[in-house]
Amino acid sequence: MARWERAEATTPRPDPAPWDDPAPGPDADAPLVLAAEGPHGPVIHAANVAAMQAGAVRGGRVTDARALCPDLQVIPADLAGDAAALERLVLWARRWCPWSAVDGADGMVLDTTGSDHLWGGEAAMLADMETRLEALGQSVRIALAPTHGAAWALARYGDAREICGGPALKARVAMLPVAALRLDGTTLLTLRRLGLKRAGDLMAIPRATLERRFGRDGKALATPLRRLDQMTGALPEPVVSAAPPRRFRVVRRLPEPVMDPQSLLEEPMTDLCADLAQAGCGLRGLRLELYRTDGTATRLESGCARANRDAAHLIRLLSRHFESLDAGFGFDTLSLEALRVEDMAAAQVRLDGGIDSELAVATLIDRLSARLGGQAVQMPDPRASHLPERAEGWAPALRGGRADLLAPGGLGGGGMVAPARDRPVRLLQVPERIEVLYAVPEGPPVRFKWRRKPYLIRRHQGPERIAPEWWRARPGTRLRDYYKVEVAEGARYWLFREGMAGDGRGDEPDWFLHGMFA
Predict the structure, then answer these.
(1) Where residue 308 sits, what CATH number does that domain have?
(2) Looking at the domain assignment, is residue 65 inside a domain?
(3) Dihedral, 96, 100, 104, 105 alpha carbons, nearest 10
């Protein structure tokens, strides 16, 4: 039974303010933590060695760690991305054994019973695991033991790579702390108050005493006695290995080579869509592989903005690839494979025979992306932030854009849900500095000059104060006061004053133009 955990995760750094100079990337030797949202603010999800030496503790508050280490670098943790990557890694790890499963948020467990001899023994198998995982950029702690509980404990509280089994197992796990028993925080606190610090201390206590104090087997899943039995092998704990995702693929071997296989796609595409419909799924990506008689393979791919299983539409998406296809001496084999399969419920056709507007938008995005490229067609990508430049973004519609807006209910009213506050229809990517004339320093503007042209303000509304995000802002970042103004020509603009006079964070406040209203 092998068990290992990832020691560190990486997440892209958020973009800095658009008008600031981009900050350098995080230094590998500098204190760095990954932060996740907690009940009372951001908490530390993971930390590097420098941060832990500076006082950062996993689960502690980011503000407390910054008080101990002012130079601490904080990056938001991508918990959903880490979970998805771990699930893919679990399937990838089945090269060593047929049974693997996710074990917690940062590890996986493999049942290697009967598989180690295929790799030259247990030590050689662990060395191969470590080498391959390090090639993927993963720092690992790995352990092999006869039981799941012992492997879990040794991977976290033992050596970086350890093998333990047979008669030495009980003596080895007795040296580990009680935290290696996979108990909840309340139980661990009770054990420490009773002076029980190691697993061996619990083994020396009569079983009847543990049962009376913490419950009998079967009444609770994580009692100290139950965890001890699982660790030593007295109680079985099999690995529940999830079934691999179903692969939707259709292969056709042609009786003779053809130069243009486009006319032969209808039958295999229909079969592929029928298999998807039977499983209640649709595809977001499609791959066509064409094999020439000389052994050369050509791979063509297309994407969809939402799950789709319309054979005619998918064939149209592939049609542009045949314009510059090199057939050589002809193709004798083709295969179609569904990529990024998602659940897709059957939808009722409209009574008037019309086309659903959401489906029409998704179809248009697919055709434009197939013709112009995946990066050319983008969709709004709203984020959780009250800063305008961070709350509104754009991403490719086929890869990471808010394609869920095309799902039922996403654009039900014909557009995106309006935000709580009115925002300009056009937001400048980089706010532009302007010269402003005002009566009092904290008052509204009277005139301003933008791009060498003066403007007289007839009406204004505001201010709307937006404070910087303290958990990610740089030291000295100033707050903003936004004003909606209407000039003499009738145009409306969105201005903001950065900073306040006498706030101790700079000189006189600066003014910027951030957007234009219709």
Answers:
(1) 3.30.1490.100
(2) no
(3) 60
Dihedral over alpha carbons 224, 225, 228, 232 (to 10 degrees)? -170
Q: Which two tokens stand for residue 40?
A: 């009372």
Instruction: Enumerate the β-bridge partners of residue 44.
Output: 35
Tokens of 366: 């697919």
If asked whether residues 438 and 478 sit together in one domain, one would say yes
**Other residues' Cβ atoms within 10 Å of the Cβ of residue 471:** 14
Residue 154 and residue 182: Cα distance in Å, rounded?
12
pLDDT value for 394: 76
Distance, CA of 367 to chain centre: 27
Q: Are strands 100-102 and 2-6 parallel, antiparallel or unpaired?
A: unpaired
- The stretches of 260-386 forming alpha helices (DSSP H) are 266-278, 311-319, 357-372
Coil/strand/helix, residue 125: helix
209-247: pLDDT as tens digits:
888 888 654 445 678 888 998 998 888 888 888 888 889
Q: Phi then psi for 177, rounded to 5 degrees?
A: -70, 160
Element (H, E) at 63: helix 62-68
pLDDT in tens, 344-353: 877 666 666 5
375 — pLDDT class (breaks 50, 70, 90): confident
Residue 51 lies in a domain: no
Structure tokens at 401: 């854009």
Q: What is the mean pLDDT of residues 478-502?
A: 91
Cα gap 143→141, rounded to integer Å? 7
Q: Tell whether 8 is covered by a domain.
A: no
List, in order, residues 6 or more apart from 509 with CB less than 8 Å away.
441, 478, 497, 498, 499, 500, 501
* Number of domains making up the chain: 4
Domain that holds residue 333: 249-346
Q: Which residue, 168, 202, 232, sits at the end of a domain? A: 232
Among residues 289, 409, 290, 388, which one has the least CA distance to residue 345? 409
Alpha-carbon distance of 214 to 206, in angstroms, equals: 13
Helix, strand or coil, per DSSP, at residue 110: strand
Q: How many helices (H) and strands (E) does the chain have?
A: 14, 20
Q: Which residues contact 98 (CB under 8 A, 6 or more apart)?
A: 115, 241
Tokens 């467990």 — which residue?
A: 109
